[in-house]
Design goal:
Elements lengths: L1 H17 L14 E3 L2 E5 L3 E7 L3 E8 L4 E12 L2 E13 L1 E3 L3 E2 L5 E10 L6 E9 L1
Antiparallel strand pairs: 1-2, 2-3, 3-4, 4-7, 4-8, 5-6, 5-9, 9-10
Length: about 130
């Protein structure tokens, strides 16, 4: 009986230690935080941040710590004239990447930031999308 309990405990400890810290998915219950035109959505590996005002926007995808195998950020917009050409940037073995600025053309606007992060240990991938309207 002691051998069985020891074996079960060993398996439990091994399974806990073998799960990488980055193996969790996005916490989709996390509410975006904002202030002064910034809005961000946190995930277990990092966050997408949309910096915007009524005239322009750009997005940054960042890790919480260390470097990711792959990061990408994209910012898009939609105004009264339709889709605004997007800006995309990506990086390998980096802790963050930032898009270029895009500008509205007319009237009200909705900005959307998309982020992708791929873990170096598991090659797992997480995605995030966040929007703000003016």
């Amino acid at each position: 009986m002691k051998k069985i309990i020891g074996f079960v405990l060993s398996l439990a400890i091994f399974s806990i230690l073998s799960v990488p810290a980055f193996a969790q998915g996005f916490d989709i219950s996390t509410q975006p935080t904002s202030g002064d035109g910034d809005i961000q959505l946190a995930a277990s590996w990092g966050h997408i941040k949309l910096k915007s005002d009524p005239e322009f926007a750009y997005a940054t995808m960042s890790t919480f710590a260390g470097k990711a195998y792959y990061l990408s950020a994209e910012v898009t917009g939609f105004d009264e004239l339709g889709s605004i050409p997007s800006s995309t940037n990506y990086a390998f073995n980096a802790s963050s990447t930032t898009t270029g600025k895009i500008f509205k053309r007319s009237g009200s606007v909705t900005w959307t930031g998309y982020g992708t992060i791929q873990d170096t240990k598991t090659s797992g991938t997480q995605y995030a999308t966040i929007s703000k309207s003016y």
